[in-house]
Amino acid sequence: MVKLTVDAKNSKASNIATNNAEANHNSNSGNAQHIEQSHLMTVYLAYAEAAARQHYLTIQVSQGTTLYEALAQAGWLTQFAELATWCKQVADMTTPTARRWHVGVYAQKQPLNYILQPFDRVEVYRSLSADPMSQRKNKSRG
Questions:
Q1: Quick check: 91 and 76 in contact, CB under 8 A?
Q2: Strand ranges across the sheet with 108-109
Q3: CA dist., res. 88 & res. 91, Å (int)
Q4: Exposed, middle or buried by CB within 10 Å (0-12, 13-18, 19+), for 114?
Q5: What per-residue confidence (pLDDT) applies to 43?
Q6: pLDDT, tens digit, for every residue of 71-93?
Q7: What is the rounded average pLDDT of the residues 104-108?
Q8: Which helix (H) or strand (E) holds 50?
Q9: Whole-prediction pTM
């Protein structure tokens, strides 16, 4: 805390004190902004909507952000209605099920309440039109 006194004879000193107080305030607000920015982290989002239509996005999120919150912040829940519908259906599930799960981090299926870490790659998986094993068998026969 800086205490300023106004004196006509000593106006130069009060100006110096005022300037120092302003500099300290500006320095503190800069520190607050730096601290606020240090609570942000970068995460990557990837969605292969179709084989020919892929979406990639890099966003800044607050520490403690869940996978679901990152999808919402990116705007993907409004952009992709199918994804939003699926999220509503599985919102209460804490353990991903093999066939029904459409999101993960670095190819590991994760629940929507998964807390993201810096530089995580959130992946949205599309439903497969056919079982890959069946497709391989059909190719080998034909």
A1: no
A2: 53-62, 40-50, 121-124, 103-105, 108-109
A3: 5
A4: buried
A5: 97
A6: 999 999 999 998 999 889 888 88
A7: 92
A8: strand 40-50
A9: 0.64
